[in-house]
Amino acid sequence: MPNNELDLDYFKEKLIKLRDELMAFEEIASKDADTVELDQSRIGRLSRMDALQAQAMSIETNRMRSLRIEQADSALERIEAGDFGLCIKCGKDIDHGRLDFNPVSLKCIKCAE
User: Fold this and answer.
1) From start to end of 19-64, where are the E strands?
2) Which of 3, 68, 78, 106 holds its CA 20 to 30 A away from the CA of 93?
3) Domain boundaries, the chain
4) Residues 6+ away with beta carbon under 8 Å from 90
């Protein structure tokens, strides 16, 4: 489907929903990245190691979530600018199915390979 036939309202709604869901989850999950207490009387060494590993995974998950929020915001800006659905490398239309699957896509399939 050519870019000028994209239902921009559909993609805008989809991107806003994605961003809102990620931001809501970010608020819930932020506590998992808190500093791990090193009070050995409260938890054993292995439990502390597990807590440190969980903390590191949570920090990375939060980083990836923040990146995804930025990508959604950028896609919303492209909708407003009239550039949504155009490959940033070759300038051709990105396939509708690709955008439906991942509305933050910046490249067509050919350029993404």
Assistant:
1) none
2) 68
3) 3-84
4) 108, 110, 111
